[in-house]
Write a structure and sequence with these properties.
This protein is an alpha/beta fold. It folds into two domains: 81 residues, 2-Layer Sandwich (Alpha-Beta Plaits); 178 residues, Vaccinia Virus protein VP39 (Rossmann fold), CATH 3.40.50.150. Strands 10-9-8-11-12-15-14-13 form an eight-stranded mixed beta sheet, sandwiched between helices. A four-stranded antiparallel beta sheet has the order 2-3-1-4, with helices on one face. Helix 4 runs parallel beside helix 5. The radius of gyration is 19 Å and the shape is globular. The relative contact order is 0.11. The C terminus is likely disordered. Bound molecules: S-adenosylmethionine.
Length: 319
């Protein structure tokens, strides 16, 4: 069965906002990757790798969008398996990615020169998302560099290639990595072996709501809709004083996502205190979550929320 979907927007249909919105909707379905290519004569082609090894949800969403007013011009096609594009094409252009001390080294390229203090992660994403270069992955890597040290417990939700898990493990974390996509689970396992950290990275397709324990750092680089859906589960998995890092959100959806976390944390007066960035180094003792850091890179927003030191136990919500 075809697993990849091609979507074309003609020159008359393309403006940056529309393409971003379409990408955002597709990410929110949990697709593993979207490659955007310009078309000759204007227009854009998006090549979309569906989640769950199945394009049905993506095709259904696109069909719904085409029935609406704004998206009637979309041309949508499921690719045959011999047309699957990414493996052959992007690999030729892959480069070493540097984020802070992290050096994400494609496994098939010659090893890049390193500097003292570099933390090298050798990666082959296979068919999973995450070769390190995407802005959202970069943002999550930068957050992990700040938050993880030897002995940190970390939960990577939507591990994709395993890039974030391996980076955390390389800094000394013990990691639980989960993903709904079989390709991602396989890629993360293989990459953990490749980097000699398999003993420190437990990988599975366990739904986040069923993961046991609470973690110093929870990281999730998934679309806004999934982060909203998983708000209860992600915050419940965060230890007192711990941090949840949310990435994969288009900047215009920041307020919507923060509001969902307020709701998930169960108060009407805003448990996520978005005004407290400067004073947020330590965990609060007033039961309130804090925005520890936030940034926007190439239109993508990433936030780190610190749980209060004295939080009550919260049961995981569904998901
Ligand atoms: C954008 S990729 C992130 C990959 C990698 N963590 C990175 O930062 O580059 C999102 C991943 O989330 C997975 N995913 C989507 N919905 C999920 C869910 N509800 N639970 C766990 N994983 C999910 C997708 O299969 C995909 O591998």
């Amino acid at each position: 069965m075809a697993r990849w979907v091609e979507v074309e927007l003609g020159p008359g249909d393309v403006d940056a906002g529309l393409v971003d919105e379409l990408s955002g909707r597709l990410w929110s379905l949990g697709v593993v990757g979207i490659e955007e290519r310009p078309l000759d004569g204007g227009g854009v082609r998006l090549v979309v790798g569906p989640a769950h090894d199945d394009p049905a949800a993506v095709l259904a969403e696109l069909t719904t969008l085409r029935e609406g007013d704004r998206w009637g011009g979309l041309r949508v096609r499921a690719l045959a398996s011999d047309e699957e594009p990414w493996l052959d094409e992007w690999r030729a252009h892959a480069e070493v990615v540097r984020v802070g001390r992290f050096v994400v080294q494609p496994a098939w390229l010659a090893a890049a020169p390193t500097r003292p203090g570099d933390v090298v992660v050798v990666l082959d994403p296979g068919r999973a998302f995450g070769h390190g270069a995407h802005p959202t992955t970069r943002q999550a890597l930068a957050a992990l560099e700040r938050l993880v040290s030897a002995g940190t417990s970390a939960l990577d939700v939507g591990c994709g290639s395993g890039v974030l898990s391996l980076a955390a493990a390389a800094l000394g974390a013990r990691v639980v990595a989960v993903d709904v996509a079989g390709d991602a689970v396989a890629a993360t396992r293989a990459n953990a072996e490749r980097n000699g950290v398999a003993a420190f990275v437990e990988v599975s397709d366990t739904p986040v709501g069923a993961v046991r324990g609470r973690f110093d750092v929870v990281v999730a680089n998934i679309g806004a809709a999934t982060l909203v859906e998983l708000a209860g589960a992600l915050t419940a998995r965060t230890a007192p004083g711990g941090v949840v890092v949310l990435a994969g959100v288009l900047a215009q959806r920041r307020d919507e996502v923060l509001a969902a976390y307020d709701r998930a944390l169960g108060t009407s007066d805003g448990v996520v205190d978005a005004t407290a960035v400067a004073a947020a180094d330590g965990a609060s003792h007033d039961g309130r979550w804090r925005v520890l850091a936030e940034d926007v890179l190439d239109g993508w927003w990433c936030v780190s929320l610190r749980a209060p030191a004295d939080r009550e136990h919260v049961d995981a919500g569904p998901g």
